[in-house]
Design brief:
The complex is a heterodimer. Chain A is built from five helices and five strands. Chain A is an alpha+beta fold. The mean pLDDT of chain A is 96. By secondary structure, chain B is an alpha+beta fold. Chain B folds into four domains: 149 residues, Aldehyde oxidase/xanthine dehydrogenase, molybdopterin binding domain (Aldehyde Oxidoreductase, domain 4), CATH 3.30.365; 179 residues, Aldehyde Oxidoreductase, domain 3 (Alpha-Beta Complex); 172 residues, 2-Layer Sandwich (Aldehyde Oxidoreductase, domain 4); 188 residues, Aldehyde Oxidoreductase, domain 4 (2-Layer Sandwich). The longest helix of chain B has 28 residues. The mean pLDDT of chain B is 97. The chains are: A alpha+beta, B alpha+beta. The interface between A and B is large, with 56 and 62 residues.
Chain lengths: 158, 749
């Protein structure tokens, strides 16, 4: 169990050159090695979306990606959304619309929503439902999440 | 002057931490010297344990201990909310798929996993019962040894854990007067809470005591149970309950926590166990049910009697399921005026994961059957399905269940509003249908909460709150109360919770009780401080106390007003200090009551659904889902909407897609997120409308009642009735999968 592999990647704008066990997932690496516990672990089979992060501009279930596969990549986690230490427009919209209830799925929802807005600054409700379909919310705050994403889009790209 | 915040959609306390990733859930905690545990389970429901060989596992470098029942005190401690029937680890036999037989502790999770693979368990498979019919069949194996049952229990040599007889009037006499009797049997599937946060626990020795961090709704009940198992004073058991990432009832009572605590004491180090989602499915679920309703009507639609025979499938251990049986069935006749009622309700033990509390607590199981049967009666009598409900619905103040709390709302408003929002009576094209159903649940029947508010020298405030904030937004609502009552802005209030050593006792976070019970306690604590400030102000300003009023954050002197903050600063200027206010609210048991306690309030909901059925596939599209709840007063409308939307959609999950599937060995075949589907953002109704009726008639602060469960109570029958309206066939089993609907259309029954 001691096979380690060099890893050179950027997480939330900071470069890391480290060695990781080859069997560690990106999720393990973020949570256990970097202490970025905002990314959550739930199903570990890529179905619930709690571990969603953005890798080179695309959403990834970090439980399904080995850390070594992120070599040379740019990773954004929920901790990297804030601007100058303040919640960004999307995070503020989630607050204003009551989108976060228990909060456990919210980091994943935010990452999927952020990736959507990066690709499509003017989404419709159906686009939001499609883009966030892989993020389960058992509080089922889907309506308030969708409203927040649409409101954030309005604010950022009027 | 501080603007009033009660009744406003103020931002969630703890909201920012939730959107930045800073919120610490149990699995996010890291303790110095922490070790990692994994459970050893068998891929079988029921088996006799022949031997457990730990040698290979213990030989693995990094393994600290492998504990089985033999390593525990003998006899192995058993525990449960009411009955101590669940062993800390399996003793001689496993009784359901996933019952832990050993706990492995290692330096890393990887080593613990490898060690689990090296534990060799030799066992002999035994026959298992996983359905109501199999468990009640003559000659069925006994799930629980009679020695585990309560002393003198006449049902001890059966799989009936309990059997209750409720009712009033004479059913046979009523039946002879009935113009129509409708009798059908309905089944409610086995579903699970599926909080996105899997259950987790960290336990550690703490001097001569024990400390635990865990995903738990009732930290004080866990403290009580641990103290009993470990023979420790309550004061030596400290439970931290970080905000659970969703509870839905599944995190009320302990299951693996005592095993983790034993492992911590044995290793002398903190031990962390995070269940997989699959293990969480095996730890908690809702009672499934098979319910027969025989309903008697007069020709004008007046209800004459309800005759109910109800079997709720309990797991291998009782957990809190027996209470689900009583609360879910006591109100089986619903919010209606029914002159004669007979209810026979039983909990049936089975070789399945322990059924525990889940949102709705038994009411969705009976409401599904009752409301569907009521529709059958209305259709047979040619009476409008809304009209028949309004005709029988209890009116405000009416004691619709003898000896029970009278109807505490203008419930006809709720039903009329839902009918209006679904355009009841408007014509629909072919392939579409509408259904409407009513659900009624009693809130807490007993309970107690203590609140402490500290008004500090600078006018800021701390509230000590024993309620678990698992998404319902408890802290926010209580901070709103403090803000209004003491005139402290929201951002200057800190709500401290989740620590049994610091925060005063609150019995439970369940039954949608907290806004009422803890809200009243908070109000009491604030009033206590108001009284103290009045006394202090009399001295400070040289005015007789009788001429001073203190409320809403303002001390009113005969000639002027002074804010609480100013009074506090003036009074505490020399030595510092603070004003400490205490409040308490309780709901006592009701002597002689058939389920021991009357309702503190009711959650009353009316759900109406318009559905389109695909004639080729049986697939359902929810065109509009209306859910109207009587909340008394919504203290934070945005949060109430979150709860109401969430309950409605969870109800759709139960009604359309969720169910456990067992194989012939009693194993659950669809553990986890791939094979057990819950609603996603693509499964939503095209239109979802949740509304509240607010008449200020609840027992909570400012007339509030509890929220959180109302909108899940009768989703299934509203949908089932809509499907029946669309295809002309009543389906009496859930979930209403496309295949089931398609078969019903094909077979015409």
């Amino acid at each position: 169990m001691s096979d380690r592999f060099p890893l050179d990647l950027t997480v939330n704008g900071q470069r890391y050159q480290v060695e990781v066990p080859v069997y560690h997932t990106l999720l393990d690496f973020l949570r256990d090695d970097l202490g970025l516990t905002g990314t959550k672990e739930c199903c570990v089979v890529g179905e619930c979306g709690a571990c969603t992060v953005i890798v080179d501009g695309r959403t990834v279930n970090s439980c399904l990606m080995l850390a070594v596969e992120a070599d040379g990549c740019e990773v954004i986690t929920v901790e990297g959304l804030a601007v100058d230490g303040k919640p960004n427009a999307l995070q503020r919209a989630f607050l204003e619309h009551g989108s976060a209830q228990c909060g456990f799925c919210i980091p994943g929802q935010l990452m999927s929503a952020q990736a959507l807005l990066m690709e499509n600054p003017h989404p419709k409700a159906e686009d939001v439902h499609e883009a966030l379909a892989g993020n389960l919310c058992r509080c089922a705050g889907y309506e308030q999440i969708t409203e927040a994403v649409l409101a954030a889009a309005e604010e950022v790209a009027p | 002057m501080n603007a009033k915040v009660v009744g406003a959609s103020v931002a969630r306390v703890g909201g920012e931490a939730r959107v930045t990733g800073a919120q610490e859930y149990t699995a996010d905690l890291k303790l110095f010297d922490m070790t990692h545990a994994k459970l050893v389970t068998l891929d079988i429901a029921r088996a006799r344990l022949i031997s457990i060989d730990k040698t290979a596992a213990e030989a693995l470098p990094g393994v600290l201990t492998v504990m089985t029942a033999e390593d525990l005190p003998q006899p192995v401690p058993r525990f449960g909310p009411h009955v101590d029937d669940r062993p800390v680890l399996a003793v001689g036999q496993v009784n359901y798929h996933g019952e832990p037989v050993a706990i492995v502790v290692a330096e890393t999770p990887e080593v613990a996993e490898e060690a689990v693979r090296r534990v060799k368990v030799e066992y002999e498979e035994l026959p298992a019962v996983v359905t109501v019919d199999a468990a009640l069949a003559p000659g069925a194996i006994l799930v629980q040894d009679p020695s585990l049952r309560r002393a003198g229990d006449p049902l001890a040599d059966t799989n009936k854990f309990s059997e209750y007889h409720f009712g009033w009037g004479n059913v046979e006499a009523a039946a002879s007067e009935a113009d129509l009797i409708v009798e059908n049997t309905y089944e409610y599937p086995m579903v699970t809470q599926f909080a996105i946060e899997p259950h987790a626990c960290v336990a550690a020795p703490d001097g001569d005591g024990l400390v635990m961090w865990t995903t738990i709704q009732h930290p004080y009940q866990l403290q009580r149970i641990l103290a009993k198992i470990f023979k420790l004073p309550l004061a030596k058991v400290r439970v931290y309950s970080p905000d659970p990432g969703g509870g839905f009832g599944g995190k009320q009572w302990p299951h693996v926590q005592p095993a983790v605590a034993f492992a911590a004491l044995r290793t002398g180090r903190p031990v962390r166990l995070v269940l997989t989602l699959e293990e969480s499915f095996q730890a908690v679920r809702r009672t499934s049910a098979k319910v027969r309703y025989r309903t008697g009507f007069r020709s004008d639609g007046t209800l004459l009697f309800e005759d109910v025979d109800s079997s709720f499938l309990v797991g291998a251990y009782a957990d809190i399921a027996d209470r689900v049986v009583t609360k879910g069935n006591w109100l089986a006749a619903g919010p209606y005026r029914v002159p004669t009622v007979r209810i026979i309700a039983r909990g049936v033990l089975s070789n399945t994961p322990a059924a525990t509390a889940m949102r709705g607590f038994g009411i969705p199981e009976t409401a599904w059957a009752r409301e569907m049967n009521l529709d059958e009666g209305a259709l047979a009598l040619g009476i409008d399905r809304v009209e028949i409900r309004l005709r029988n619905l209890a009116r405000y103040g009416e004691e619709f269940v003898p000896g029970e709390t009278p109807a505490d709302g203008r419930w006809e408003q709720t039903v009329r509003r839902a009918a209006e929002l679904i355009d009841w009576g408007e014509p629909l094209p072919a392939g579409r249908g509408r259904g409407l159903a009513v659900g009624c649940k009693s809130g807490p029947t007993t309970g107690i909460s203590y609140a402490t508010v500290r008004l500090l020298a600078d006018g800021s405030a701390i509230l000590l709150c024993g309620v678990s904030d698992m998404g319902q937004g408890a802290r926010t609502v209580f901070a709103q109360i403090v803000s209004d009552e003491l005139g402290v802005p929201m951002e200057r209030i800190e709500v401290v919770s989740g620590d049994t050593a610091v925060v005063p006792f609150t019995q439970q976070t369940s039954a949608s009780r907290s806004t009422v019970l803890f809200g009243n306690a908070t109000l009491g604590a604030c009033r206590d401080i108001q009284a103290q400030l009045r006394t202090v102000a009399a001295t400070l300003y040289g005015v007789d106390e009788s001429q001073i009023a203190a409320e809403g954050g303002v001390v009113r002197l005969p000639d002027r007003e002074v804010s609480f903050a100013e009074v506090a600063k003036a009074a505490l200027s020399s030595l510092g200090g603070e004003f400490i206010g205490n409040g308490m609210d309780r709901k006592d048991a009701t002597p002689g009551h058939p389920i021991k306690g009357s309702a503190y309030f009711f959650e009353l909901n009316c759900t109406a659904i318009e559905v389109a059925v695909d004639p080729g596939t049986g697939e359902l599209t929810i065109l509009r889902h209306v859910s109207v709840s009587d909340t008394g007063k919504s203290l934070n409308p945005m949060q109430v909407r979150g709860q109401d939307d969430g309950g409605a959609i969870m109800g759709l999950g139960h009604a359309m897609m969720e169910h456990y599937i067992f194989d012939e060995h009693g194993r659950v075949r669809n553990l986890g997120a791939i094979d057990y589907r819950i609603p996603t953002s693509k499964d939503l109704p095209l239109e979802l409308i949740t509304e509240q009726i607010e008449n200020g008639d609840g027992p909570g602060p400012y007339g509030a009642k509890g929220v959180s469960e109302g909108t899940i109570l009768c989703v299934a029958p509203a949908l089932g009735a809509a499907v029946r309206d669309a295809i002309g066939v009543a389906i009496r089993d859930l979930p209403l999968t496309p295949e089931r609907v398609w078969r019903a259309m094909r077979d015409g029954k």
